[in-house]
């Protein structure tokens, strides 16, 4: 199986093969190693071969598995959700300081997670802070179903409120914190993404308009209207977008409070607050 993926020029072929075989057999990695010399039934061989064929056709390994780990939790995926990636953990990390500041001041915190997808950002924060409640917004009904299920699996379903809305147009606020990983790929660049991304992540969650900044313009306007007087706004950004995004929010009266790099030393998350 590994040889087939290597021959197919699949990045991370060895790990992908182990993940797919272990999941097909219902085993963890340790059990797979212990049973590596045991025969595999014809039915299991066919099951594994089908998964390998899907990977060779370009389907991401976590799409085939139907889930991906993010910030200590497993999140189910669906066709209408973005696959959560490690870059977004920088946004969760940056958000923690803002949440803790709000909790220290008033004891509770109301978050809006815009474009929630799998619910990864909101669920991660809810799991860390029992006094936090999140409104999870998405335009795609299927994404909201998946997010609700993920929140329930993580034990935070009662504090996770999924709502169908185009950004925050359905709300009056105020929110203590608005957080989002919005679409930020320039339209012309979507076709240049890897086949694993462009073929399986919904275009709706990738395409940020001509310059990749359309979502930030909408979010900046809504943050100015819907954030509480001491509210926070935090966003993931694309590489090289920090200066432009800062200016968009500054024009709406929100100033940069902090930023955080991802594991590749790329400035990946920005934290804004109202200009005092």
Question: What this model shows, in words?
Answer:
This protein has 276 residues and is of the alpha/beta class. The protein is built from 11 helices and 9 strands. It has helices spanning 2-7, 13-25, 29-34, 42-56, 61-65, 89-106, 120-128, 141-153, 195-198, 214-226, 242-250, and strands spanning 67-70, 73-76, 109-114, 132-138, 160-164, 175-180, 227-236, 254-261, 267-274. The strands form 2 sheets. It has a 7-stranded mixed sheet with strand order 5-4-3-6-7-9-8, sandwiched between helices. Strands 1-2 form a two-stranded antiparallel sheet. A hairpin with a 2-residue loop joins strand 1 (67-70) and strand 2 (73-76). Helix 2 runs antiparallel to helix 4 (42-56). It is globular, with a radius of gyration of 20 Å. The termini are far apart. 39% of the residues are buried. The model has no long low-confidence stretch (mean pLDDT 90).
